[in-house]
Amino acid sequence: MITLIDYGMGNLNSVAKALSYLGQAVMISSDADQVSKADRLILPGVGAMEYAVASLQARQLDEAIKQYLQTGRPFLGICLGMQLMFERSEEGRSEGLGLLPGYVRRFPRQAGLKVPHIGWNQVACSGDLLIPEKTSYYFVHSYYVVPAEKQCVAAVCHHGVDFPAAIRTDAILLTQFHPEKSGDAGIQLLQGWLERPLL
User: What is the topology classification, in CATH, of domain 2-194?
Assistant: First the structure.
């Protein structure tokens, strides 16, 4: 059973549909106890960090995520779900969940650079077998993460600046792109994540 965290700001239906396509049973839950005891956990996200953190805290889901991560079971954060894992954001000077060291920065204002970054873009410098070199994924975001620990960057993309397209550390996989909207490449990534053994 895969649990999708429902905190009122997620692309839940498209993620659930992609997982169902792969034959997976999916539970969508805003219950902190269910989240902390999940077999596999996904934190999706679309929207502003400030409101997302407030929504997670109001439901005590921030603590449930922390408890879950202590078990070492597989965790996937998507788009805003990736950014939420870090300490703070330039978006409204918001505090994140602080589960990983680093912060979230807005794309620079420069001539010819469209913000938000929307559409297909190719990843490079991939050190992760789940994310093949020169594979394109679908992005929708105005901010990107700046991790304190550079060795956790699993793949890089370029949009005006180089930014982490994916982060991987222990059982945590975070993607700035939307695998559920990235066609065959996204499905392959989700399948690989699902094949990671449970503890």
Answer: Rossmann fold (3.40.50)
